[in-house]
Amino acid sequence: MKKLFYLLVTFIIFSCSKSENDNSQTNSSSSPETLTYIRGTLGSETLNFYMTKSSNTLFAYNYSLGYQGDIYNRTYFYGGYLSPMPYDDMTKPILRIDFKNMITTTDPSAQANLFYPAFEPVPTNFLTDDQDRNLIKGIEVAYHQNGLTNIDTTFSTLYTSQANSTISYTSVTNGTDSETGKKTKIIIGNVKCKLANYNATITKDFIGEFKLILSY
Questions:
Q1: CB under 8 Å to 196, separation ≥6 — which residues?
Q2: Mind listing the pLDDT tens digit for each residue in 124-144?
C-alpha cells in the first residue's frame, strides 16, 4: 500500500530595509520586491496571491514537497503554494502548483543529485487522479478555498478533463536556498486549465501566471 507524505515548509524572507508603513511597492504583485506569485482568474473570481520581501507581506509562500511510497521506495513531488497571512492559519485559502512524481529513489539523500535533472524538461502535462496514484510525472494546479485539509472546497486539475489546457514556461533557473544550502528551481510561466471539485459537479476555468521557487 502506498502512503502519501506531504511536507509544507514556510518560505519567508523579511526585509528590514522598508518601513512597516511603506505599502506603496511591497504590497503589489508586480513590484520588484515580489518573490513569488500565482495570480489570475478562476471562473469569475480574481486571485492575486503573492509574497514580497517586506515584513508586511500580505501572503506567505510555502514549499510543498513530499512523497508517495514507504521507507524503502519513494516517489517525490515538489511545488509551491501561497496563502494570506498569518501563514499558520490553515483555514485560509491556498493557491498551489505541484510538479508530481518527479523523482523515484530508495535513498532520500539522492534528491540532491537528481533534483535538477528531474526538471529537464519541465513537465507540461496535467495529471488525472488515477495517473497521480500510478506515479506518472506531471502537474497539478489546485485552489483550496477553505484551507488545505477541506476536501469539500478544494478545486483541482486532477478531477476533470484538461482538454485544451496548457502550461508554458518563460524562465527556468537553477538556484540555491540561502538558509538550507539546498538546490532550488525558479520557474516563471503561464497556465490555462480547468479546476473541479472532488465529485466534478463544479468546474471552473483558471487562467493565470506564476513564479515559483521549488526545493527539496
A1: 155, 156, 159, 160, 202, 203, 204
A2: 999 999 999 999 999 999 999
| SS3 call for 70 | coil
Q: Nearest to residue 139, comparing CAs of 33, 38, 23, 3?
A: 38
107: exposed, middle or buried (Cβ count in 10 Å: 0-12, 13-18, 19+): exposed
Q: Which helix (H) or strand (E) holds 22?
A: none
192 neighbors 165 (Cβ within 8 angstroms):
yes
Q: Which range has the worst mean pLDDT, 24-28, 37-41, 55-59?
A: 24-28
Q: What is the pTM of this model?
A: 0.86
* Cell (9 digits) for 168: 508554458
Query: What is the grid cell recorded at 206?
Result: 483558471
> 204 in helix, strand or coil?
strand
